[in-house]
Amino acid sequence: MHSTFSLLSSLVVCLLLALPTDGYDPLITRDNRKPIVSTEFGRVESVEVYDGSEKEPLNLQFFTLEPSSLLLPLLVEADMVFFVQTGSGRVSWVEKGDITHMDIARGDVYRLRSGSVFYVQSKTTATGEKLRLNALFTRRDYEDTLDEFIGTYANLSDVVLGFDNKVLQASFKISEELIKEIKSRKKPQMIVPAVLKEKTEEDSNWKLGILEALVGGGSHEERSNKKRKPFNVYKKEPDFKNPNGWTLTVTRKDFPPLKGTNVGVFMVNLTKGSMVGPHWNPRATEIAIVTHGQGMVNIVCPSKKSQCPRTSFKVKEGDIFMVPKFHPMSQMSFSNESLSFMGFTTMAKKNHPQFIAGKLSVLNTLDPDIVAEALNLPKSSVQELLSCEVRAEIR
Amino acid sequence: MHSTFSLLSSLVVCLLLALPTDGYDPLITRDNRKPIVSTEFGRVESVEVYDGSEKEPLNLQFFTLEPSSLLLPLLVEADMVFFVQTGSGRVSWVEKGDITHMDIARGDVYRLRSGSVFYVQSKTTATGEKLRLNALFTRRDYEDTLDEFIGTYANLSDVVLGFDNKVLQASFKISEELIKEIKSRKKPQMIVPAVLKEKTEEDSNWKLGILEALVGGGSHEERSNKKRKPFNVYKKEPDFKNPNGWTLTVTRKDFPPLKGTNVGVFMVNLTKGSMVGPHWNPRATEIAIVTHGQGMVNIVCPSKKSQCPRTSFKVKEGDIFMVPKFHPMSQMSFSNESLSFMGFTTMAKKNHPQFIAGKLSVLNTLDPDIVAEALNLPKSSVQELLSCEVRAEIR
Amino acid sequence: MHSTFSLLSSLVVCLLLALPTDGYDPLITRDNRKPIVSTEFGRVESVEVYDGSEKEPLNLQFFTLEPSSLLLPLLVEADMVFFVQTGSGRVSWVEKGDITHMDIARGDVYRLRSGSVFYVQSKTTATGEKLRLNALFTRRDYEDTLDEFIGTYANLSDVVLGFDNKVLQASFKISEELIKEIKSRKKPQMIVPAVLKEKTEEDSNWKLGILEALVGGGSHEERSNKKRKPFNVYKKEPDFKNPNGWTLTVTRKDFPPLKGTNVGVFMVNLTKGSMVGPHWNPRATEIAIVTHGQGMVNIVCPSKKSQCPRTSFKVKEGDIFMVPKFHPMSQMSFSNESLSFMGFTTMAKKNHPQFIAGKLSVLNTLDPDIVAEALNLPKSSVQELLSCEVRAEIR
């Protein structure tokens, strides 16, 4: 009996170690997010999504800052593509010795590069909205994919104070007493009350101008030229729009700062009782986060059926669902509630979603005789199937 | 005793899980092909070849269609490079909403892109030849290599009818009864009798012209410009040819449709009692399929000897053999039978096969004194070895 | 009890199989090098370094040739980037049918391409110095990363004589007796006494000219144009230099022959009692070999603390230490001895080392209020920390 137990145990251990996943579960509900930090000023939650295309799971993090709070400086060890779900604030980052400040607001998309040290400060708004960022951490390219010594980010205090006293003393040219005192202080929480007064962009540009005038040199002009701006999804014309809803995608083609990643961002809004028609993505895997409402998701696993434990499921605000490429899917809102979700796609370029029904569908492109054989249907049924001539993106 | 068994079992399990292969076997005989489907109209067989360079094995499939048969539409989830071994027919595919028809005949090479929906119809020929395609399924590039949720292809009926009734009903705007009836029908076999009358290419172009004239627009011209044609290996000058045989390779440089894959195609023909001289490929791994006759293959595993269970073996029609790059090899026909094989190479570009004997050999490039030391031979033997001044590709 | 043993054993087996490493150890001491060959004419030692970014560990080899010795021809199956630590000699290689000879001396860096057959001959110098090469074997690019059938290099005799007698006989057109005699000879050691008289470069060019004049054709000129030269680290201006030491890096930007690899080479020299200030590399992982002296290395693992078994350790001549990107580090010489190390970086391009203290530090770029919060310090301490305004690369 013991040996049976031992066999089973070791089998389980082996399976866990050797297979990053034993099947694909498309749904991660809100309560399966892992808390990283939670204070009265905000919280950070994390979810690992195994997308099947990388050895390492993708890391999705949710940053929530109360108004006038500060996320302390982090050194990011992967590229961080983020979307501002609510609120507004300012993100500041140091890259190659330069600091950049950028105002952010609801609907903004941006990408911070691996190796940046960044911090975020939330604004106080009339409505008291929290600043919420949904962020995907991703390796930049194939050269970075399998780096198991590298994490997502590190606190600045761990980076600076992790050295031996002797090294710190020699580096900063300070006394041993001060080093000891610095090291004895309590490590700060990740999110604290804001310490900087809220500056407008004009302010900081002005200050920058003064500073650089004092320092001298034409670097101000150069820096102004490459002033960073986020991409706002609410200011772009949707890819598809009708009274039932709209969809929009942001790729590296639309937004140069995404270049060098293979990540895109998308947003879908459905009014009550609507649906995104059945379709598949030939190039992109989608990781979606429900930002509002509830609905149903239907997924088909045509070629690897055993790996689909769940093909039809309900989603609600805060849930995450993942659909690998080539997996046909459809999303629906309920008749009494609208549904919005945004998400990240891996492999942003040249994805042509292929719809199954309607004017542009693959069935309507094929010869009806072939469709009849493929589905084993009489011609009359095929004619009915293909008679739907409207575009079917959202209905 | 039980516990010993359990230890051994779990060890075996671990080994199977953790190592994709426990050694390299260069030979897969014809009877080790795995049947996928077999009807009176044709059959499909599959072989997985682990080439050592990808986590996932390469998938090789053999499609055989009786005259006037139809391979029903498949959604390919990987790039499919194919070679027409015998017969003729037509392949049709839908990519990004357009359908393309292309006639194919013996010796043709083509590549269908992942995400295409394709079907194949065989022609009736005077000789009653079957249409036989040898196909390699391959991930397009590094971004696609490790996708374990993705298979090779899916049947169109699984893709379309995998959705919930409610979703299908809303999508196709048809009655619940019709949905139920459609779903209740027996799933068709993968290969069925042909349903389309055999059209010549002119016919279909003509029809396309009419259609587009009705629809309006200049898209016909655009489409004609990018008319797809396969590459025929029998119409190209061989890379090397003498009375003992010939060899030919097709790379993405020769044939633009191969661009974006790292797959090339090659063909070797040996008359009776001939051989391809000892050589290695510094860049390409070869996966060969014997298309005619019998012969002997000799492989050397110089740097990882333990991984070579088989270094000299007989091959016959239908057998598959795989030679990783840097592994010296030689193929011979028997004195009473010719030998032909075609195959796929991974990493198609810039491969310079390096021959060991003859005028262009690496030995003849080195200083004879160095060769003498390297092989620990007296100078006289080296002189004899290097005296063979003819080119040694085939002899 | 047995079953517990079995469980534990299989667990260990699983762990060993499934995880290429169970933690990151930055130090490999000299006595952990694995000897490959050792004769009176020289020796070869090997070390495998798991850098976390590839499935397969990186292979580092140390070639030591006594004066006037010969490393027999090897077929390299990976790119080989080497650094000449001491001595001088000549490396010769055959690539695509051409032979190239190149003189090498202390401080030279070069890269041989996978697929080359090369050999090395050491010179007799006045000081009797040995020729010592430190070499990193690396897959060229993503297409080559996971090739488990391929090793590092193979001896020419194994490559040539691994074939069956019949194949060799047919290829070289020699008698069966000679084949048998050749195969019966004792396999030579990897390093033997030099057999070629030491030629100057002028000699060989002259000989080459004669040869090509006889053969005819303008290929001599063409070959002269692309005459290969190594990069010498002692002839380049250091990236940073002050009385305490200097640092230098060689990337593919500096030295075109490194193109196509993601490997760079660096060198650091510290005088007595000096240090390389705390910094991290955002793009490059460093593998360093101590070439002279002794010192201390201090590493911080900020984001994955559990994976740092060793953060402060002594290094001495011949030791190897590896620092993954994003890991802050500092190296110090002792007060009574200088310290030199050279090494290889993976991901050579666009690495901007980020220093923690001094004028260009990330702390000085941030707002002092933010630094105070991040380190949980009073403003006065922050001012002291940031007051050090000198550049801190080496101090």
Automatic annotation (TrEMBL), chains A, B, C:
A matching Pfam family: Cupin_1
Name the record gives this protein: Cupin type-1 domain-containing protein
Segment forming the signal sequence: 1-23
Domain of life where this protein originates: Eukaryota
InterPro entries in alphabetical order: Cupin_1, RmlC-like_jellyroll, RmlC_Cupin_sf, Seed_Storage-Functional
Residues covered by the Cupin type-1 domain: 231-383
The organism of origin for this protein: Amborella trichopoda
Record keywords: Signal
